[in-house]
Amino acid sequence: MTRPQQRAPKGRTRDRDDRRAVVDVLLARAQRGALSTAEGALLAEHVREEQRLADATRRAMAGTTQALDRHREAADAAIVEAEQRTEAVEEQLARTQAERDRLARDVEAMHDGINQAAREAYGERRQHRQALAEQRARLDQVLAVLARVRNAEALGDALAAVAEHDGLSPTAARIHGRMLDRADTTEARLAEQQREHDIALATQRRRAEGWKRHTREAERQAGRYRIAWLAARRDRQADRAAMAAELPLVQAGQQALASRCPFPCATCAAETAPRA
Question: Where are the domains of the chain?
Fold first, then answer.
């Protein structure tokens, strides 16, 4: 089994290794107390160099740490932005899903409406066909009845056909036709006319009796008015006669009153003046 060959250190790594090897040797000599002045100066130089390199490394590490912090902050911001974008995409996806569900419901409702309208149209069409069939059947029945009426030999047969069309049984229709035939005879017509004449005559008689009662009542009321007028006329004539009889006495009293008044005035003259 062969060991992997190690690469030779290069650059600053090789210098650091050499310097550390020298420092190890000098420290060992210092521990033994065999360190010379030149070796002490070399050791101090190497120590200061290590300190300088450590400070430089520390500063570089601080910059690296700051860069890492900046990268971490940028990564956090990128993560937050990605999460926000993800949330926005999820919200958009939810809205899209809701819109798709709504459209699906609308389409389903539209299909249901179309199916319902189709069923209603089919039902109306079937009802219309049934109505047309019924109308055609009734029309055929009416045409058949009209044909029977045209071909009827008597009025009773024609009326029986019409009555049968109206819902009567054939027997009842025939009886009805016979009754109509009998009612159409001359005797039946004369009896009907006589009955109408009797009804009209009775009506006129009732009206005449009513007018007679009204006339008698009007005459009685006119007599009462005439009697009252004559009584009022007699009372008025009696009042005039009494006033004419009392007029000389009134005039004499007024003259006596005027003769007693020492101061003739217009009032006394007016009271004593004879009235027409």
Answer: 13-93
Query: Is the pLDDT score of 62 beyond 60?
Result: yes
SS3 15: helix
Task: Identify which of 185, 178, 142 has the alpha carbon closest to the alpha carbon of residue 162.
Answer: 142
The structure tokens 């019924």 sit at: 134
How many angstroms separate the CA atoms of 160 and 172, rounded? 8
* Whole-number Å distance between alpha carbons of 114 and 108: 10
Q: Torsions phi, psi of 52, nearest 5?
A: -65, -45
SS3 content of the chain, % helix, strand, coil (to 5): 90, 0, 10
3-class DSSP state for residue 218? helix
The answer to whether 149 touches 166, Cβ cutoff 8 Å, is: no
CA nearest to 157, candidates 130, 184, 126: 184
Residue 4 has pLDDT above 50, yes or no: no
d(CA 250, CA 91): 128
- Give the Cα separation of 156 and 177 in Å (integer): 4
Determine the Cα–Cα distance for residues 174 and 270; give it in Å rounded to an integer: 109
Greatest alpha-carbon span in the chain: 199
d(C-alpha 38, C-alpha 46), whole Å: 12
pTM: 0.29
CA proximity to 139, closest of 165, 168, 174: 165
pLDDT of 168 reads: 59
